[in-house]
Amino acid sequence: MGRYTGPTDRLSRREGVNLMLKGARSESGKLERRMYPPGMHNWRRGRTSDYGTRLREKQKVKRYYGVRDKQFMRYFRMAERQKGDTGAALLRILERRLDNVVYKLGFGESRAAARQTVTHGHIYVNGRRLNVPSYLMRVGDRISVKPSDKSKNLIRQRLEELGEPHVQNWLQLDMPKLEAEVIAMPTRDDVMIPVEEQLIVEFCGR
Questions:
Q1: What are the pLDDT digits (tens) for 34-92?
Q2: 8 Å CB contact between 142 and 130
Q3: What is the pTM of this model?
Q4: Cβ count within 10 A of residue 134
Q5: In the chain, which segments carry CATH 3.10.290.10?
Q6: CATH assignment, 98-182
Q7: Beta carbons of 6 and 96 less than 8 angstroms apart
Q8: What confidence score (pLDDT) does residue 1 get?
Q9: Between residues 49 and 97, which one has the greater pLDDT?
Q10: Please, which contacts does 154-163 make with residues 24 or more away whose CB atoms are closer than 8 Å?
């Protein structure tokens, strides 16, 4: 199955939380006023089963980071092999994706825009062009914009439109140079949506 290309607000309404799939544009009150499941018969929905509750948490995180089922399960298996809380480890892995980092630096108004920015070759990692959005960043990795007027003007325009980003503590941004560095690993607190990761572990580990 290919990537979902339908209305993004529909996904947020289905999960009952603003997934910020449109970036800053999702902050408008229109979505919050319609935060009920899509479809003409949503009022008939009964009590969600335990299975359904766990599935919704998994779908929420999967859609928030823009990954597919196969990718998601690969990250889950990676998290299982790490020491400590598997759910928190899973979220930390997803936070390290290059497209997520580019989004959090303000180089893209949404994760979808950041993913496109990466695939179009506008982003360099450690001085080399990298067009793989799923690349997992490590401490010491440096991000820069392709040294061309087109790429730099594109990123500067986005930063002007979005305003100065509130960069999290594990990232360091030099706005004049359009460069950034990963100075620490992300923590569970860096995840920006409410999620009960233990339900995801129960669903994926069954």
A1: 555 655 555 556 677 889 889 989 999 998 898 999 999 999 999 999 998 999 999 99
A2: no
A3: 0.82
A4: 18
A5: 98-182
A6: 3.10.290.10
A7: no
A8: 40
A9: 97
A10: 154/117, 154/122, 155/107, 155/117, 155/122, 158/106, 158/107, 158/108, 158/109, 158/113, 159/106, 159/107, 161/109, 162/23, 162/24, 162/106, 162/109
